[in-house]
Amino acid sequence: MLVIISTLANKNEELQTFLETVDTTLSGLQEESSKVTSDLEAELEQLSSALDEKGAELRGAIKEEAQRKEVQLQKQLSEGRVAMMSCEELLDFANQTLTITNEEEFLKAAKQIKERVTMAPAFRLTTRPAASSSFSEFTVDFSVERAGLQRLHFLPVPAAPQVDPSCCVVCDNTVMVAWQPAGEGGADGGGGRIERYEVEYRKTNQESPLRAAGACWEKIHDITDTQVTITGLKFDSHFVVVRVRARNKAAAGEFSEPVAIETT
After folding, report:
1. pLDDT score for 186
2. How far apart are CA 204 and CA 213, in angstroms?
């Protein structure tokens, strides 16, 4: 009976710890979901701002070119009207000259006409528009970019590694922890190339990792191998609970299942 009572008491304590862990996880879930939603909104806002800026830049380029062409054409239009008036005046003068019967006066008028024709704006004006109405160089096709936007998705993160207790070694106040990346030792861990690992550990007298939930995690960052030696420990507890997660260029993935390593 005492064995049964002890077993039930231990199970009750384990369940209590489990419920506390789930409750803490639930609170963290709500906080984390709010954070990533906020991060998403910030990224979308930056995309929208970048699109607005680029749109303003492209619209500005079209407007600038339209103004440049308009100035050139308006100048040509003004010069053309002046040339036409001059040509019409010269034509009237030439027609009047034809009515002169005096040969000397006729020759004099003809000479004047020749000089005026030589200097006439109509004969110095280029009769081709200085600019075309075409804006073909401003044609756009953002189908590739739209397709890129459709491919927007969350960054892949590595799956949780797996601590290998059989390869972990305890010796002289040190613990060598070894693990395997997810996917049977694949280099990318299922979420892009792994750049480094992070290990967390804490001491406990409870064999169950859940029942060590009250302790604070110690952290080791920037591990490039699939093992690390924890030094400077004092084996004043029966177990060291360890967990590990992989990190790629984007972010860190989930932690592995915690493993309790016996130290005494």
Report:
1. 45
2. 9
What b-and-e string marks burial along 138-164, b requiring 16 or more CB atoms within 10 Å of the CB?
eeeeeeeeeeeeeeeeeeebbbbbbbe
User: pLDDT tens for residues 175-233?
Assistant: 999 999 986 444 555 566 899 999 999 988 876 665 555 568 999 999 999 999 999 88
Print the domain residue range for 185: 156-264
The answer, yes or no, to whether residue 235 has pLDDT greater than 70, is: yes
Cα distances (Å, whole numbers) of residue 150 to 5, 138, 146, 164, 173: 60, 25, 6, 40, 54
Q: In what order do the strands lie in the sheet with 239-247?
A: 218-223, 196-204, 239-247, 259-262
Residues with Cβ within 8 Å of residue 216, at least 6 apart in sequence: 202
Phi and psi, residue 97, nearest 5°: -60, -35
pTM higher than 0.85? no
Q: Which of 154, 181, 211 corresponds to the end of one domain?
A: 154
Q: In this structure, are 149 and 173 located in the same domain? A: no
HSE of 176, CA atoms in CB hemisphere, 13 A = 9
pLDDT score recorded for residue 216: 84
How far apart CA 168 and CA 157 sit, in angstroms, is: 26
Query: Are both 258 and 173 inside the same structural domain?
Result: yes
- Cα atoms found within 13 Å of the Cα of residue 199, Cβ hemisphere only: 24
96 and 32 within one domain: yes
pLDDT tens for 1-21 read 788 888 888 888 888 878 988
Tens digits of residue pLDDT in 98-150: 888 888 888 888 888 888 887 888 888 888 999 999 999 999 999 999 999 99
Do 98 and 210 lie in a common domain?
no
Q: Which of 78, 146, 86 is nearest to 117 (CA)?
A: 86
